[in-house]
Amino acid sequence: MSHDPHPAPPRAPGHVLGAPVVRREGREKVTGSARYAFEQAPQDCAYAWPVPATIARGHVTAVHTADALALPGVLAVLTYENAPRLEPPDDPTLAVLQDTAVPHRGWFVALAVAETIEGARAAADAVRVGYETLDHDVVLTADHPGLYIPKEANGGHAGARERGDFDTAYAGALITVDATYRLTPLHNHPMEPHASTAWWTEGRLTVRDSSQGSTPVRNDLAAAFGLPRHAVTVISEHVGGGFGSKGTARPQVVLAAMAARHTGRPVKLALPRRQMAAVVGHRAPTIQRVRLGAGADGVITALAHEVTTSTSTIKEFVEQAAVPARTMYTSPNSRTVHHVVALDVPSPSWMRAPGEAPGMYALESAIDELAVLLDIDPVDLRLRNEPGTEPDTGRPFSSRGLARCLREGADRFGWRPRDPRPGVRHEGDLLIGTGVAAATYPVLIMPSSAQAHAAADGSFHIRLNATDIGTGARTVLAQIAAAALDVPEERVHLAIGRSDLPDASLAGGSSGTASWGWAVHKACAALGERLREHEGPLPAEGLTADADTGDEVAAGSPYARHAFGAQFAEVQVDTVTGEVRVRRMLGMYAAGRILNSRTARSQFIGGMTMGIGMALTEASTVDPVFGDFAECDLASYHVPSCADVRAIEAHWLDEEDRHLNPMGSKGIGEIGIVGAAAAIANAVRHATGVRLRDLPLTPDALLPHLP
After folding, report:
1. Which of 6, 368, 544, 630 is 20 to 30 Å from 663 by CA-CA measure?
2. Bridge partners of 66?
3. Distance CA 308, CA 352 (A)
4. pTM
5. Are 285 and 172 in contact (CB under 8 A)?
6. End-to-end CA distance of the chain
7. Is residue 4's pLDDT more than 90?
């Protein structure tokens, strides 16, 4: 008999895992009583406003602050000459105001501090900076002489992988696809900007920060200011979105702490939205060449995915866009390579589903192109290329629900019967088409710790430094605890979002619930054992159990663990205006056990909506002369509005996978975006007969090709 490493937790009366429990913080958010990082009000608080560099590369030669300091209410102007000295950080983007170097436009060169936010902004405008300008290089090209293959791409993935003999297999293939897809830089743009409120008390630093993980922010601040970690407290109680851009400490938290130390007063700093694009990370541009070789039966015999992207000169970050091709389809002969060049641009970083979102757009578009050449239904082609094990590693999948997602999603969407001929469905000036794409995202689990406490009054208290970035983490973790303790969910109280709680991983990589939930389940299981062993009433101080999952996570898994999905889209293309509208969209997902159907559906739909933006509206360009992003606010960087999301559905399989964690859950925060853009682009090709490979599909790009 096989041993089940993660037996399912007991089901609590009335609150089984999966129930659509209402978000715990929902009322506070809709009534405005939830307080975010910039909404705290320490006594005698001052305000700060940054001064960004106006050159693309060079050095500061002088900072003239006299006019700024003469303004009413101005307390200080920090520059490289008077700012507190920092220990060299592991992340060079945090080394602000430490020297004269300007690695890219928008790099902060001064910070104004005043009694009011208006005074701080006026002071920043009054600062005059002199520069020595150096030549700069900001444009990514496929043949850039500085390209190299990195040792690793984001996530620790090998920069290049080769299996079999791709060149020979591709040359001998009956049917081939050779296509190049381009994506511009993309920006996260959370509704709440990056903001921090910092103050010092007897050598201790306290910060309220808009962050996806206050533990790593605390660690970075302690290292930068030469403090023991216990002397720094970072609080991230409510966070208004991040999508990856708040996954690491950003310059504003360091600047706020520096200004508070310099002035001896609490200081608030919220980054102006127009400055965010240069300092909080972005999705790097990619040029992706995909080559597929197949026989008449559609089975892929050769697959190459070669990615060209850029990073900055101060920090290497390589979007791992070729990695999904190592997981998705039968590919005995495979080449997956990343090429990167360091440019004088802001440092790229995580953006929702980094790697998978751009990589799967290219791969799933190429699969659709192969289906057209072979005259095989795109759903059937994907089913014909289902691998028995993970192609890149040979490991068995812990579960792989892609085939079921494709079949059940097609049934729900009404995919069949589908006329494969392009441009044949008309409604007046509108062309109608449908498209499909697959999606995948890895199961990531990070070490975390938690404490569970049974109080004498019958309540239960869970403590861990998880962060709720708007996903409903508070609610789901309470459900996990209630199920593990076999008690109603309303008896569970949760403390999260502070670095002085038991350490937990950040909210990123769709790993939060799986990582934190495992620690919560383990702590509650230990507490339950103590309660069963205890005789008589609980002592006044109650009973407590602590747990961490370091050993379990370090042990790894012999299985390839991934979530999968299939996304279907129907679009209309206006032949007069070139506008594309998504009429309806459906996602079908296999993501382990869904722990809260209400918050899960919200996550899936949110990701799909972000995919609509990726496909149709979101774009950013680097000005080759000035070295900055031309689209740096929500007036010029267009995200989908409610009118752009007409009918969108999210469904999932009842997938049981006992090789994940005690809850049997996979991450759901990012897989919704992964295949969305490709499904829409494939639908546009079906509607028009025109294959445009560069995103976004804006009217100006489509109009020249329309009848």
Report:
1. 544
2. none
3. 19
4. 0.96
5. no
6. 65
7. no
Specify the amino acid at residue 139. V
Question: Is 533 labeled as catalytic in the residue annotation?
Answer: no
CA dist., res. 376 & res. 385, Å (int): 12
- 113-172 pLDDT, tens per residue? 999 999 999 999 999 999 999 999 999 999 999 999 999 999 999 999 999 999 999 999
Alpha helices (H) in 48-155, listed in sequence order: 66-69, 117-126
| Owner of token pair 């489509």 | 702
Q: Which residue, 229, 589, 569, is CA-closest to 402?
A: 589
CA distance linking residue 589 with residue 427, whole number of Å: 32
**Could you give the C-alpha distances from 240 to 29, 36, 206, in angstroms and in order?**
10, 8, 20
For residue 222, how far is the Cα from the chain centroid?
25
- Local structure of 363: helix, strand or coil: helix
- Spatial contact of 234 and 227, defined as CB atoms under 8 Å apart: no
| Angle at the Cα of 241 from the Cα atoms of 237 and 244, rounded to 5 degrees | 110
Q: Which of 101, 103, 117, 1 is nearest to 49 (CA)?
A: 117
* Strands 460-463 vs 195-201: parallel, antiparallel or unpaired: unpaired
| Helix, strand, coil percent content, the chain, rounded in steps of 5 | 30, 25, 45
Map residue 153 onto helix, strand or coil: strand
- Rounded Cα distance between 297 and 303, Å, is 16
Joined together, the tokens standing for residue 452 give 């569970």
CA dist., res. 581 & res. 451, Å (int)? 49
Please name the residues in contact with 645: beta carbons below 8 A apart, sequence gap of 6 or more: 582, 609, 612
H/E stretch holding 641? none
Rounded CA separation 302/321 (Å): 18
523 token code pair: 């702590």
What are 405-441's pLDDT values in tens digits?
A: 999 999 999 999 999 999 999 999 999 999 999 999 9
Q: Which helix (H) or strand (E) holds 41?
A: none
> CA-CA distances (angstroms) from residue 144 to 153, 305, 644, 683?
19, 18, 37, 33
Rg (CA), the chain: 26
- Antiparallel, parallel or unpaired: β 286-294 and 267-270: unpaired
Q: How far apart are CA 636 and CA 521, in angstroms?
A: 45
Three-state secondary-structure class, residue 555: helix
384 to 299, 402, 676: CA distances (angstroms): 6, 12, 21
- Kindly report the number of other CB atoms within 10 A of residue 113's CB atom: 29
Per the structure block, which two tokens stand in for 584?
Answer: 């309806």
SS3 assignment, position 126: helix
Among 343, 319, 243, 273, CA closest to 624: 343
Confidence of residue 5 (pLDDT cuts 50, 70, 90): very low
Q: Judge whether 596 and 18 are in contact, CB under 8 Å.
A: yes
Q: Write out the two tokens for 685.
A: 């090709």
Q: For residue 498, what are the contacts with CB-CB under 8 A and spacing of at least 6? A: 214, 233, 234, 235, 236, 237, 465
Which residue carries 């005059």 as its tokens?
A: 128
Helix (H/G/I), strand (E/B), else coil: 415 = coil
